[in-house]
């Protein structure tokens, strides 16, 4: 009976629809009559049918990993993309094993870390199923000796596979982390994912000239291959704190040699928000998961050329510092397929630099190979 009444009410209402009002059922095409700015935007910028048909929209589910559980004074954060090589998954990350928890940069000593990523090396873990992980007994890449750049801490690695060799890019801090300390990106290379890793003597990327957006440090190098070139995305900073603080922007630099030199895009910064970088090939372009900070935080963006990004979706509770399992990250197929899982970091004590982080698994459906019809 209730249904019948509703149906009658609907039928009675139908003739009263005015073309001046947006109808109850969202039209497929942009209306040809005046609409509000919000409705116009729905067609100019977004899919009016929301996220169901949006390939670059996803929710995220998080699961603890076995083998990398929270341990006092051991921190694991900023994982690279996950690689699958001969049936084994590999990941590298910032690893800190110290005598104490972080004590703040002012009180840091040779053995007491200032921040969560201080006194760190690059560690490696492997897994047969993506859930159970085994960490190596020793770091994959150790801090270089004094006075080399990075003797205080090396962190936030990004992995690249190029012409059968492996390259790890990472921040190289010395004499201390934080503050106005100049921080370039160094690179180490290996013939196999299990090393041995060799430090390259010259930095791969250096901060941009004084006065520019990325003049003191380069964070979170994230390589991807597109149109035959290596693209490294990174977060830059001109100043650590204060009104000019625009740390949360990202730039890109290009090279056809993994050891550099890399040439920064003349359009940098190319992403105006975010924090840790997460860039991956998608279709014939490059996509970026932009989380945490800035006016376009918590979005996924896409660019045909790697330099001009457009917001494609708004996401909720995105992974922090995600390292997706992205099989085509370096194959330059021109048909990037996206991903369905990866590792990210979580700071169980609520974030910040003053405690330990853990790696966790995230699952999602940012893959063109997911059957979207079943969600409609
Ligand atoms: C990371 C990065 C930068 C920060 C710290 C270490 O996730 O964003 O590198 O400085 O945390």
Automatic annotation (TrEMBL):
Metal-binding found in the keyword field: no
UniProt keywords, alphabetically:
Hydrolase, Signal
Superkingdom of origin organism: Bacteria
Q: Which InterPro entries match?
A: Glyco_hydro_beta-prop_sf
Cell membrane listed as a keyword: no
User: Where does the secretion signal sit in this chain?
Assistant: 1-20
Give GO terms: molecular function aspect only. hydrolase activity
Q: List the CDD domains hit by this protein, alphabetically.
A: GH117
Q: What is this protein called?
A: Glycosyl hydrolases family 43
The record lists the organism as Novipirellula artificiosorum
């Amino acid at each position: 009976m209730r249904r019948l009444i509703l149906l009658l009410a609907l039928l009675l209402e139908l003739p009263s629809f005015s073309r001046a009002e947006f109808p109850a059922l969202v039209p497929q095409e942009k209306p040809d009559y005046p609409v509000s700015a919000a409705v116009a935007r729905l067609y100019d910028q977004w899919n009016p049918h929301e996220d169901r048909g949006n390939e670059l929209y996803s929710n995220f589910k998080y699961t603890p990993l076995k083998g990398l559980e929270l341990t006092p004074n051991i921190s694991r954060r900023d994982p690279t993309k996950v690689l699958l090589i001969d049936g084994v998954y590999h990941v590298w990350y910032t690893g800190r094993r110290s005598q104490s928890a972080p004590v703040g940069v002012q009180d840091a000593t040779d053995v007491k870390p200032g921040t969560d990523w201080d006194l760190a090396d690059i560690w490696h873990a492997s897994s047969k199923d993506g859930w159970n992980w085994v960490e190596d007994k020793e770091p994959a890449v150790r801090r270089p000796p004094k006075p080399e750049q990075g003797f205080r801490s090396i962190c936030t690695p990004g992995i690249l596979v190029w012409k059968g060799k492996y390259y790890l890019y990472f921040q190289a801090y010395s004499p201390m982390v934080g503050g106005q300390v100049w921080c370039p990106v160094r690179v180490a290379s290996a013939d196999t994912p299990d090393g041995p890793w060799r430090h390259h003597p010259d930095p791969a990327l250096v901060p941009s000239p004084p006065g520019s957006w990325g003049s003191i440090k380069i964070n979170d190098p994230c390589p991807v291959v597109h149109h035959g070139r290596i693209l490294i995305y990174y977060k830059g900073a001109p100043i650590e704190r204060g009104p000019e603080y625009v740390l949360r922007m990202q730039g890109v630099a290009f090279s056809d040699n993994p050891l550099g030199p890399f040439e920064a895009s003349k359009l940098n910064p190319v992403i105006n928000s975010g924090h840790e970088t997460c860039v991956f090939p998608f279709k014939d372009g490059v996509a970026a998961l932009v989380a945490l900070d800035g006016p376009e935080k918590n979005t996924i963006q896409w660019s045909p050329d790697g330099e001009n990004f457009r917001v494609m979706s708004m996401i909720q509770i995105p992974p922090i510092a995600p390292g997706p399992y992205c099989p085509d990250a370096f194959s330059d197929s021109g048909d990037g397929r996206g991903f369905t899982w990866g590792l990210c970091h979580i700071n169980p004590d609520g974030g910040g630099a003053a405690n330990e982080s853990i790696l966790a698994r995230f699952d999602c459906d940012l893959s063109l190979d997911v059957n979207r019809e079943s969600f409609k």
